[in-house]
Specification:
A hairpin with a 6-residue loop joins strand 1 and strand 2 (129-132). This protein has a two-stranded antiparallel sheet. The chain has helices spanning 2-41, 48-55, 70-86, 92-99, 103-115; strands at 119-122, 129-132. With 133 residues, it is mainly alpha-helical.
Length: 133
């Protein structure tokens, strides 16, 4: 019978070692995933790392969001209209390259110009071309 007690002691010791190793691996993976998620969403990391980041000097904030005024929107729409007059039957991607505005500004401008009846759209979705009405 002494062999079974030694065997069970060895089995128990192995289980303890494996359990501790698994616990350490899980803790390390959780910490890494938490740090990656925090970096992606721009939040501060939780736990011990938060205390370390709190002692660091604050970083300069990114430029504040700039909401375009109605005058800026109107000026961009006139820029779009003038470009479409000079270059009819272009797709929105080509118009965007020509006027040097963001995709969002071009898209909203084209929708506004189309709804006001100043331009017309021929085609569907990405294959659509625009010309003056």
């Amino acid at each position: 019978m002494p062999k079974t007690t030694k065997r069970s002691d060895v089995d128990s010791a192995i289980r303890d070692i494996v359990s501790r190793a698994a616990h350490e691996i899980v803790s390390a993976v959780r910490a890494d995933v938490s740090a990656q998620v925090s970096a992606l969403v721009g939040g501060k990391p939780a736990g011990r790392t938060a205390a370390r980041t709190a002692t660091k000097a604050p970083r300069a904030k990114a430029a504040a969001f700039h909401r375009r005024s109605p005058a800026e929107i109107a000026a961009d729409n006139e820029k779009l209209l003038a470009f479409i007059k000079d270059h009819p039957d272009l797709r929105s991607e080509d118009i965007q390259k020509g006027v040097s505005l963001s995709r969002k500004d071009v898209t909203t401008g084209l929708v506004a110009l189309r709804e006001s009846g100043r331009i017309k759209m021929n085609g569907v979705k990405r294959a659509a071309t625009y010309s003056v009405a």
